[in-house]
Amino acid sequence: MSLKDLADSLFDRIDHEAARPVDLTRHERGHVQRVLHGVVEVAGFHEALSDEVITFDGGASGLALDLVPGRAGVVLLRDPLGLRPGQGARRTGRVASVPVGEALLGRVVDPLGVPLDDGPALSSARLSPIEVPAPPIMDRAPVIRPLQTGIKAVDALVPIGRGQRELIVGDRQTGKTAVAIDTILNQVGSGVISVYCAIGQRGDATARVIARLRKAGAMDNCVVVVAGGEEPAGLQYIAPYAATSIAESFMRAGRDVLIVYDDLTRHARAYRELSLLLRRPPGREAYPGDIFYLHSRLLERATQLCDAAGGGSLTALPIIETQAQNLAAYIPTNLISITDGQVYLSPDLARRGQMPAVDVGRSVSRVGGKAQLAAFRAVAGPLKLAYAQFEELESFARFGAKLDEDTRAQLARGRAVREALKQDEGAPIPVAQQIALLLAVSEGLLDGVALAQFGPVANVVMTAVADLPAAQEIARGLPLEGDRRAVILVAIRAALDEVRDGHA
């Protein structure tokens, strides 16, 4: 090759390379100043974004949570992996995201979408930011459809609608998680997708919940997001937001979704720990000043969308734990003011064996009553009044006062209502059978049943109406009146007559 040919080839190569687009990506770098327990202070960042992912030399990563000029407080999401002062840090320009979509159904993942089960990696799932704005007002619709929990005390007296935010609150060991899990189990076959978010829970407790869901066949339409108590506080902090993004992806596709946060008390404690390490000013109970906003922006994402926005719904059941029945503590009062009602579980009722331990007097649903089935409304009104009167009379009767016949009848009716509201854990009851049992109680058909025999007799009543066309009609929303009411009462009375004849 001549010198001229070599020069022409060299210039052609230069022209070819010059024509290629140049990818100049600007990466702002900083260095680690301090490493604390789960928090790193990084100097040198001037344009970092809130919740931006920061990577460190050595493989660790975190979120930029505290931003001041020239410095950023970064919350670690994984083990620090030998992170120490002086190491380099780099902005990525992207916010924390989680995989979403149908690929997550039946899976157990952490808040970053990393599988915790034996399934394959979620490489094909699309990503969604863990924090997005709540749906605007114009995209929302009224809550008019019920979400059945399968729990008599809730469906009848504290009804929940699709798109509602209903708080589950109570002391330790009162059955809060059991109520939420039974609600998930009751969605099997209903088309509702469930998302269970475990925050700061023990590993064995979460494993038992997952085993229950698998045994009942609920995992096929369920996603479990886990940030255990042994995980860094940063991972626990983002867990409910990641779980909500997963749930929202189904809601945006027009599906009905139920999400359970178990529990937000531990979430608040994780955020308090991070805030104190970031040297933010502590407020009441040492929580930072934005603790209310922490949960309000989370729960505002639960809603019923209008038809133009897809018509999907996201129902939220946040769980919080109280101490010594103190509902006036900081986090409980915050959550009570944010949500649309609460199911209060009383430790006194739990000690007396009244399970689920729903305190009807302290529980309220500000939205779900409009979504309640017409048949439920027909029996729940008189039932709630009779139960409230019974509780007052029972406390009065303990003093040994002489009671007239009407008062004794009210006490008998109240005891029947209390027994009817008892229910075994993990055994959700279909709507029609719930209504039939409560109808029998409100009509006084079970007033004379001995308390020891009430459970078996109640099962007989519910079995008697299970296959009636009238019962299926009221389960579809038709009112409990006319021939339907008469047919159901005839079946109940016939079943009770058989029970009495069998004991005669």
UniProtKB/TrEMBL annotation:
Catalysed reactions, as listed in the record: ATP + H2O + 4 H(+)(in) = ADP + phosphate + 5 H(+)(out)
EC number: 7.1.2.2
Membrane-topology descriptor: Peripheral membrane protein
Entries under InterPro entries matching the protein: ATP_synth_asu-like_sf, ATP_synth_asu_C, ATP_synth_asu_C_sf, ATP_synth_F1_a_nt-bd_dom, ATP_synth_F1_asu, ATPase_a/bsu_AS, ATPase_F1/V1/A1_a/bsu_N_sf, ATPase_F1/V1/A1_a/bsu_nucl-bd
Domain annotation ATPase F1/V1/A1 complex alpha/beta subunit nucleotide-binding: ranges: 150-365
Site (Required for activity): S363
Domain ATP synthase alpha subunit C-terminal as annotated: residue spans: 372-465
Binding site for ATP: G170, D171, R172, Q173, T174, G175, K176, T177
Swiss-Prot/TrEMBL keywords: ATP synthesis, ATP-binding, Cell membrane, CF(1), Hydrogen ion transport, Ion transport, Membrane, Nucleotide-binding, Translocase, Transport
GO molecular function: ADP binding; ATP binding; proton-transporting ATP synthase activity, rotational mechanism
One GO CC term on file: plasma membrane
Location of this chain's protein in the cell: Cell membrane; Membrane
Subunit structure: F-type ATPases have 2 components, CF(1) - the catalytic core - and CF(0) - the membrane proton channel. CF(1) has five subunits: alpha(3), beta(3), gamma(1), delta(1), epsilon(1). CF(0) has four main subunits: a(1), b(1), b'(1) and c(9-12).
HAMAP family: ATP_synth_alpha_bact
Protein name: ATP synthase subunit alpha
